[in-house]
Design a protein that fits this description.
Layout lengths: L2 H5 L6 H28 L5 H27 L10 H22 L1
Helix pairs in contact: 2-3, 2-4, 3-4
Length: 106
């Protein structure tokens, strides 16, 4: 194998698995946002419930934007590493979605 051949990377299915993981994460966030809206409107809308549901929807949109950006970045043969601030933002959105969803249940 020559040096030029070693520089080429065969990513295999790893980028596809990563794209699918991002899609599953955004789908889960969508389910949480929909359930939050349903919970907020069950028995009549209340101000805290509507605010929590709107916060869930906003967090989901933020997560969707981050995921879309990362999925597009994975389309190249040698994608760049996920920046720490993007990873932190994705984790923050996911945890905040879970907290808002839990707050609406209790």
């Amino acid at each position: 194998m020559t040096r030029g051949q070693a520089a080429e990377r065969d990513p295999g299915l790893q980028p596809e698995r990563t794209r699918l993981a991002w899609r599953r994460t955004t789908l889960t966030g969508a389910v949480i946002a929909v359930l939050a809206a349903k919970s907020a409107l069950h028995g009549g809308p209340s101000a805290p419930g509507v605010v929590a549901a709107a916060l869930c929807a906003g967090l989901w949109l933020g997560l969707l934007g981050l995921a879309h950006r990362r999925i597009n970045a994975l389309a190249v043969p040698r994608p760049t590493a996920l920046a720490p601030h993007v990873a932190a933002a994705a984790v923050l959105c996911t945890v905040a979605l879970a907290v808002c969803g839990a707050a609406l249940v209790f």
